[in-house]
Amino acid sequence: MGQHGLAVRRACTAVGLSRAAYYRVPVPAAERDREVIAALSGVVERHHRWGFWMCFDHLKRVQNHPWNHKRVWRVYRALKLNLPRRTKKRLPKRDSLPLQAPSAINTVWALDFMSDALYRGRTFRLLNILDEGAREALAIEVDTNLPAERVIRVLEQLKAWRGLPKRLRLDNGPEFTAQRLVKWCAGHGIELAYIAPGKPNQNAFVERFNRSLRHELLDAYLFEDLDQVREMVWWWLCSYNAERPHRSLNRIPPMMYRQQVLERRSSTSGVSA
């Protein structure tokens, strides 16, 4: 147009450019797709394992954004979200707490998971809950999957007949760090004492219990199905609490020790009264 004095129409035709593109003010892609980038980044941040179609369906049907899949896919690729993403959840810093046996029963409970397999190879898990004050095993839950909701259900069952402790000692597994469990414990006034990552010795009471369970039951028998596992675990649990002497309890079983503690407490309260 400057060199040959052509009109806009003829100049655009000569170079193959539409007049709409000529008059349109250039806008950087980051600015043009700012809303898409923000919405897509928010979804990926919350659900880092979702693929493109999961993200698009969430934006389209849940958040009601008007963008079509081609535009979202273009931004998705520009952000390199189509490439494999390595994500690792960083655990908060855990203070190293000294392991001390509580002086009272039903004050601190220790929780931990174990795993084993049936005879035909199917794996299953065990959730062990131990009262550190009496070294008494309160529950052993058995199933192929034990999410946070299942942990809460077991704690609710224990609450009905045993009450709840002031503190739970546990590791940093996803079931124990789940928000559902954290909120449930906060609502019941229970402190969560997480051990430092890679330091199972900070949860030594339940680890010692796990060893006994592994040596005396899990490694001693072959199990055909989960019902058989649950039945044998129940009988072993009863024997552990009522019959098996514990060295740290003056060589008496946990239930006998707990009964002695309750009797001393009642006698002391009677004398005080």
Automatic annotation (TrEMBL):
SUPFAM superfamilies: Ribonuclease H-like. Gene3D superfamilies: Ribonuclease H-like superfamily/Ribonuclease H. Transmembrane segments: none annotated. Residues 98-261 form the Integrase catalytic domain. It comes from the Bacteria. One of its GO terms (biological process) is DNA integration. GO terms for molecular function: nucleic acid binding. NCBIfam families: transpos_IS3 (NF033516). This is Integrase. It comes from Sulfurifustis variabilis.
